[in-house]
Amino acid sequence: MMAKEATVTASSREVITVDVTLPGRRYSILIGDCLIAAAGEHITAVLPGARCAVVTDANVAALYLAPLKASLEARGVLLGDAIVAPGETSKSFPVLARLSETLLKLGVERGDCVIALGGGVIGDLAGFAASILRRGVRLVQMPTTLLAQVDSSVGGKTGIDTPQGKNLIGAFHQPSLVLADISTLSTLPAREFGAGYAEVMKYGLLGDAPFFSWLEKHWQQVFSGQGPERLKAIETSVRAKAAIVEADEREESGTRALLNLGHTFGHALEAYAGYSDRLLHGEAIAIGQNLAFKFSVAQGFCPPDDALRVERHLAKVGLPSKIADIPGKAPTPGQLLRLMAQDKKVQGGKLALVLVRGIGQAFVERDVPPDTITAFLKTECGSA
Ligand code: ADP
Ligand code: ZN
User: Fold this and answer.
1) pTM of this structure
2) Residue-range domain boundaries for the chain
3) Which of 96, 155, 324, 342 is most buried as measured by Cβ atoms within 10 A of its Cβ?
4) Is residue 263 flagged as an active site residue?
5) Which residue from 213, 317, 322, 200 is spatially nearest to 261, judged by alpha carbons?
């Protein structure tokens, strides 16, 4: 069941392959630095005969659409492209409707494929469009943000937002192939890179203490992109996510819930900040992870030193770690608890939280009493 290892050398550059094996299907995640130019070759090998429609946003289109189209055209498999506005607001019913019609007009048929070129927004939106177009067409994810490369492009979750909440409408739709071209990260704004790094850290904190220690030592190279460390950090993250998805594709056995470390607190903070530039998802998750560690210490599960290491590392890499780090007015404990209770992971009114026994030892604690959380949040919101 574990993701298998294979290293291929393509035109003297390293391409790492992580295979994801699910009941009845299997796909590969390729990680390397020349995958946009080689996309036509890789896609035609996996999906012979399929023609491709590229979905991207205006920012990514300006940077990477032309080389991708050239690569697809060289193989004679380009149908066309659809460009949406950048940002979370594109994950909506109106944009999905327009995009679906554009894809039909481009002539996408059952055997064809949608390519999602961009960050998590494009992966979720284009992935969902692919899942419903003609009752489902093939999907290739080409993530261009760190967050999408290590997290959202792996595992098959797709969807859009509604006024009732984020990602409440969607489908599981596994890609046929993921091409993570890490050279695209060179143009990613530093703040977006940092936000993605919070998810990289998460894999160390939830189940791989040696990886977290390695990050403590090598984070500077991961951020600078000089040397092999960035590739290694992405590979390690993708392998961790792939293994969890293999063990629990549809979040049924509880294993996949561990990926929510920092997310119940984080989602509440994100909602409080209005899903805006005030607090990016990864920044909210950085604070959320620190809160999960501190809460675990307060409950007697985790040694205080481990929580200190997490807080120190967040400070070193320039990520927020405290509720007070969010610009503007601080939320009240009551506000946060109400937002936490709206989390998708709530079942029968009981709050499940991912807690830790230490770095690399996450577990799901069901039925955490709301009063315990409120008391903890009082200290954290600075109103104790
Ligand atoms: P995420 O992957 O964090 O969910 P988005 O899909 O919203 O986020 O992407 C974040 C922002 O970064 C968007 O404005 C998007 O257009 C932009 N973007 C995505 N990939 C790149 C890249 N490789 N270089 C520059 N900007 C990018
Ligand atoms: Zn996340």
Assistant:
1) 0.94
2) 3-187, 190-380
3) 155
4) yes
5) 200
Q: Residue 314 Cα, ligand 2 centroid: separation in angstroms?
A: 16
pLDDT at 7: 44
Return the structure tokens found at 258.
């561990």
209 Cβ neighbours under 8 A, 6+ residues apart: 358, 359, 360, 361
The residues lining ligand 1, judged by C-beta closer than 6 Å to any ligand atom, are 57, 59-60, 63, 86-87, 118-122, 144-145, 147-148, 184, 187-188, 192
268-317 pLDDT tens trace: 999 999 988 999 999 999 999 999 999 999 999 999 999 999 999 999 99
> What architecture is domain 3-187?
3-Layer(aba) Sandwich (3.40)
Please give the Cα distance from 98 to 205 (Å, whole number): 40
Find tokens 């999408």 and name the residue.
148
DSSP result, 277-334: TTS-HHHHHHHHHHHHHHHHHHTTSS-HHHHHHHHHHHHHHT---SGGGSSSSPPPHH
Please report the pLDDT score of residue 224 as a whole number.
97
Known catalytic residue: 13? Answer: no
- Calculate the average pLDDT of the chain: 93
Q: Which of 69, 263, 294, 313 is catalytic?
A: 263
CATH topology of domain 190-380: Dehydroquinate synthase-like, alpha domain (1.20.1090)
What is the full DSSP assignment across 160-172? EEETTEEEEEEEE
178, 154 Cβ separation under 8 angstroms: yes
